[in-house]
Amino acid sequence: SADLAGSNLTIWKGSKNVTSHDASANYIHYGVREFGMSAIANGLALHGGFIPYDATFLVFSDYARNAVRMSALIPTRAIHVYTHDSIGLGEDGPTHQPVEHLASLRYIPNNDVWRPCDAVESAVSWKHAIERSSGPSCLVFSRQTLVHQPRNDEQVSAIARGGYVLSDPPSAKFDLILIATGSEVEVAMQAMRILADQSVAARVVSMPCTRVFDAQPIEYREGVLPSWCRRRVAVEAGITDFWCKYVGLDGAVVGLDRFGASAPAEQLYVHFGITAEAVVARARALA
Fold it and tell me: What are the backbone dihedrals phi and psi of residue 218, each rounded to the nearest 5 degrees, phi first?
């Protein structure tokens, strides 16, 4: 990790610092060297024998970007872990709050970007990253604790497809789709419950990895995001333009098209309008 091992939570009980001169050492404290760290991960991956992972805050992926791009271009089997993924970072302010970074990383060809909403999606994304041999994976995690989302076995299996139906109305009939990732999945779920009380039936789609979802057969994608349902709202605490391809010209996106601010996370979400109430308002405004 680049000077943030304790915050990234990448140290585990089996970690041994390479400066200990122990032949079994397996963990490098890089200091503030995000580019060097990611470049070395590429070299380790090309050498083979084990799969390297590196870590920093998501906003500092800027410093590592060229090495991450090379991970995808070469390609290498490197895993880039990014934590503190949004305005949920809180009091450290806009310099440490990523806004455009998720979209920027997703636009790198051959780069899988996973933003899980809870421990289950985190486990699936980690498994997918370890098994992927054709390129790198970016695992993007929140700072704040996230609510566990209940699922059946079919839904757990579908996580690996990058996007899936997390919740449907009891009648299975809906005329609105809410799409979300990471910490905003719970926001979408809360909005769904509010809308249900207002007699509006909504489907919630969790999309932890857009690139993996886009690679699915058209029949699967149509089953998750049916083309007949044009009332769609995407919610993610970041740049909104990226989501236009999923919501279309008739949909809406609840996100952040400006830099953040310094305040407790819960206050920032209210201040910037990334709330269940805001999602409900945007959904009800759709024709």
Answer: -60, -30
Question: Which residues have a Cβ under 8 Å from the Cβ of 284 and sit 6 or more positions away?
Answer: 195, 198, 200
**Interstrand relation of 53-57 and 79-83 (parallel, antiparallel or unpaired):** parallel
Q: Closest Cα to residue 214, out of 253, 251, 162?
A: 162
- Give the C-alpha separation, 45 to 76, whole Å: 6
In sequence order, which residues have a C-beta less than 8 Å from that of residue 46 and are 6 or more positions away? Answer: 74, 76
Per-residue pLDDT tens over the stretch 94-119: 999 999 999 999 999 999 999 999 99
**Sign of the CA dihedral 233, 106, 262, 181?**
positive
Q: Give the mean model confidence (pLDDT) for residues 218-243.
A: 97
Please give the Cα distance from 64 to 38 (Å, whole number): 6
Using the structure block, give the residue that is written with the tokens 């000077």: 3
Please state, in angstroms and rounded to a whole number, the distance separating the CA atoms of residues 55 and 33.
Answer: 11
Three-class SS state of 36: helix
As given in the structure block, the two tokens for residue 205 are 């789609």
Looking at 205-260, list the stretches that DSSP marks H as alpha helix, in order from N- to C-terminal side: 210-214, 218-224, 244-247
Distance (Å, rounded) from C-alpha 50 to C-alpha 44? 8
Q: Looking at this protein, which amino acid is placed at residue 30? A: Y
Is 186 among the residues known to form the active site?
Answer: no
Structure tokens at 257: 């098209």
Give the integer Cα–Cα distance in Å for 54 and 10: 8
Q: Are 103 and 62 in contact (CB under 8 A)?
A: no
Average pLDDT, the chain: 95
Which one, of 41, 167, 34, 184, lies nearest residue 102 by Cα?
A: 184
- Whole-prediction pTM: 0.95
Please list the residues that pair with 206 across neighbouring strands.
164, 180
Indicate whether 229 pLDDT > 80. yes
* Active-site option among 34, 121, 184, 236: 34
Taking the CB of residue 173, how many other CB atoms lie within 10 A of it? 9
